[in-house]
């Protein structure tokens, strides 16, 4: 098992996305408040496509999406990670994250984003990473600011305007 397949922070355990997580991801895809910022509710078929793409990404690149558990309870609280994506017409390594609403505003997204930035820059040797967020997702924009991301430009993502933020190794 590679060292990137799981990691922990003070309050989180991240484990590599696996097929066994499909039902949890589907439940997240049905949560309106989450999906308002992530392109809308997804069907079972769309969730399976998401799973196939992200499982394949791990096989191809050795990193990808993790599911997140709260250390103290073991409860699944969200998903996030690093993945190759085209953002604003450019190949990027994207920092992605999404949490169930009952875990919002508790610092989990910031804790996860800080860990993923360290992994990307230190373990993977990336020179920079990007993240897109919905213009109305002010909480996510605060997370990005706290973790060293800087607003770069507006882009079209999932056929809607999103904000692209960037973090590079000169910012750590």
What features would you describe in this structure?
It is built from five helices and eight strands, in the order ββαααβββαβαββ. The chain is of the alpha+beta class. The protein has a single domain, classed as Aminopeptidase (3-Layer(aba) Sandwich). The strands form two sheets. A five-stranded antiparallel beta sheet has the order 1-2-3-4-5, with helices on both faces. A three-stranded antiparallel beta sheet has the order 6-8-7. α1 packs across α3.
Strand content: 25-35%
How many strand units? 8
| Count of helical stretches | 5
The biggest beta sheet reads: 5 strands, antiparallel
Span between termini: 28 Å
Shape: globular
Poorly predicted tracts of residues: none
Q: How many separate structural domains?
A: 1
CATH homologous superfamily identity:
Gcn5-related N-acetyltransferase (GNAT)
| Helix and strand element order | EEHHHEEEHEHEE
Question: SS-based structural class?
Answer: alpha+beta
**Name of the level-1 CATH class:** Alpha Beta
Report strand order across the widest sheet. Answer: 1-2-3-4-5
Indicate the percent of residues in helices.
Answer: 25-40%
The CATH topology, please?
A: Aminopeptidase
Identify the CATH architecture. 3-Layer(aba) Sandwich
For the CA atoms, what is the radius of gyration?
Answer: 15 Å
Q: What's the pLDDT, averaged over the residues?
A: 93
